[in-house]
Records
---
Amino acid sequence: MLSRSVLTRGVFAVLTASVILVITSCGGTDDGLGRRFPVSGTVTYNGKPLEKGSISFIPDDPKGVGASGAIENGSYAMSTGGNSDGARAGKYKVTITAKEDSSAKAKADFEKARAALPKGSGTENLGYIPRQFLTKAGAEAKSLIPAGYGDVRTTTLTAEVKEQSNTIHFKLSDADAPPEPKAPAKGRGRKGR
């Protein structure tokens, strides 16, 4: 027969495990990003769905948290923490970018640089394109929409996310395009102070 202390410990262990299970399954943890609401919609350019691109919501509130998403075949869904989890309620400036595919140029530039190196330099069996080639090719890629839509300083696009499921459509066109962003002014740096 079980002793009273063994039985008490068993009941206590079951109760403790039950309490822990209830606490962890009832949203006891916070990911720190706040409550988010579904945001999706469409993006067209000159009346046609934008095939590929990216969209970002930049909060008007300086303490806000931004959201972003990929545009595929004219549709997008926003994410703050990943997995199309939506955006926090509030007002946003919206940037949209779409550039030509730069991976072929990055690969060609890397192959050209690799060919110029002496044999045995260690790049012969490299199975990826180094980041500097991808970054350079991406920066040089041609924008498929007016660049003003992709710069927070010039975009005219805005959105308001409400505490509900949100469907927000963006119609981009050459006729309504914001001005091209100007390059940032070059400062004098530390030496000029």
---
Amino acid sequence: MGDPNRLFDVSDRRLERRSIVLLLVLTLLWGITFPALKIALRGFPPILLSGFRFLLAGVLFIPLCGLRGAPLVRGTQGTRLHLVIYALAGALGIILLPIGVKHTLANRGSILFNTSPFWVLVLGIFLLPGDRLTLNKWMGTGIAFFGVLLLFTGGGDLDPGASHFGDGLVLGAAIVWGFRIVFLKHFPGQTRTETIQVWQFLIAGPILIALGLAFENIRDIHLDGSVIVSFFYLAVVSNAVGFFLWTYLVQKEAATKVAPFMFLSPVFGVMASSVILGERITGQILLSLGLVGIGIVLVNWQKAGSKPRLNGM
């Protein structure tokens, strides 16, 4: 388990400006992930797609670990159980997500998946005693979530191919993702971000490929330019770069302050879907973006002159 004092120490501290900028960049990159995933699924079965992109991301991380001196096997004795649990949860989530997205609209999947901050709050009650759930956090998360829900009010424009089955799988992936965010805070404090990512990708990737070969037909892979570009975006930008930034930020900051930024991903996702997939941008999207921004400010609001509370006191 991680040092509990480290959890208490960051709970009431404002996010650093650098962290805010990185979170904005990350949510933009992950917003683009959903239309990219929709395009990649035109040429890949969902589980095989996930396995190949995870495996490629893991291979890319190996030299990074060497350059930065992060341990791969040696020096991980006290964290291996954490690493395996985190990787297996990642495999479960990444199975649910692409199958769900395949059966629903890209921006609808983006909205559902990014309900995960709620699951962080709920799970944090039991698993993060040092991450204090203040009124501001509840109110901010609620307002941001309401902003996201506004994107559902144009239900008549939804793709008729969307289904409750697909929605349910994406929501399940969101719950798993929420667990992973909370679980990251329990890694020993010295665990390197690069190590977590290599283990995640190189454990989950082969498992997913094996499942894909068992339950999907590799002959269903059909490649063209858009599918290839989308695949490399998912593997390199969304997985390798995105997961590195996310793990770094969750380890560095309070989970319940970082998580609400994920509400920006569906807003960016809807905008990206408009550009890439030709979907309309409406006034509802702009209003949603405003409410999400207000929610994030509330979650991170701290009175002038107030000091972070230490050791839960």
